[in-house]
Amino acid sequence: MQNRLTIKDIARLSGVGKSTVSRVLNNESGVSARTRERVEAVMQQEGFSPSRSARAMRGQSDKVVAIIVTRLDSLSENLAVQTMLPGLYQQGYDPIMMESQFDPELVEEHLGMLKRRNIDGVILFGFTGISEKILQPWQATMVLMAREAKGFASVCYDDEGAITSLMAKLYAQGHRHISFLGVPHTDVTTGLRRHEAYLAFCKKHGLTPKVALPGLAMKQGYEHVAEVLLPETTALLCATDTLALGASKYLQEHQASLQLASVGNTPLMKFLHPEIITVDPGYAEAGRQAVLQLIGQVTQARDLRQIVIPSTLQ
């Protein structure tokens, strides 16, 4: 029975509500000494032990690290998280997964809760709009992903290099009319830097740029690709795999023949569209490096390094 009891069971056996059991587990106020003793006695008698993940969420595990992603369904962030988790487990850390939804207020709320729970450190997938003031209390125990901030450790991708290598590949194939589907400049890395790298290549090689910057979503790629399709267009470079997937669906429906290229090299892209030229920004390696950096900061006061992961043309 030891591993099958739930908080609901303990509440029933103690004659109290679930919220009271939760307060006892969290060592919170609002529970009388007599009630606390009764609940603790039942837990001890029944051999009740909250799950590892539940202990981690309350900050009661010896070593706990939070990973805050922007979206739980992000293909690229999940590739980085997949290498973070084994690294954390290997070092004896319990990871907590949270989602920011690109909302700075939600990040602030998450960080406040994590600080109250005495979490050891945080890996935060950054985005434009997060105030460094919010992050300041975590300076020594935080690693930013895909964004850099002065005075903070970070692991970033070589956005310029990724776009330049794809453009060079398309140019070497003979393409001279290459359009670009990207992300608004409010996103500094995926948006501004990748777009600027495209424009710089066009300028250097005397190409005429044709651009649309709809956003990150697959649907936006599908709905806006027509804006960059000219009669002479022979290739389309997409800032992300999700945009490329949307664009590809549109091109298939309209029976348009075009060479596609994108930044990402996600498994879904490779499976569905092996014909698309991709560059791997190094998501898996970024996850590994983020864990090594954070654990180094937490355990050895390692210097706050700014790490840039090189991209690889596939």
Descriptive notes:
The chain folds into 3 domains: 44 residues, lambda repressor-like DNA-binding domains (434 Repressor (Amino-terminal Domain)); 130 residues, 3-Layer(aba) Sandwich (Rossmann fold); 122 residues, Rossmann fold. The radius of gyration is 24 Å and the shape is elongated. The strands form 2 sheets. The chain has a 6-stranded parallel β-sheet with strand order 2-1-3-4-5-11, with helices on both faces. Strands 7-6-8-9-10-12 form a 6-stranded mixed β-sheet, with helices on both faces. Helix 5 links the parallel strand 1 and strand 2. The model has no long low-confidence stretch (mean pLDDT 89). Helix 1 crosses helix 2, helix 1 packs across helix 3 and helix 5 packs across helix 13. The protein is of the alpha/beta class. The chain starts with 6 loop residues before the first helix and ends with a strand.
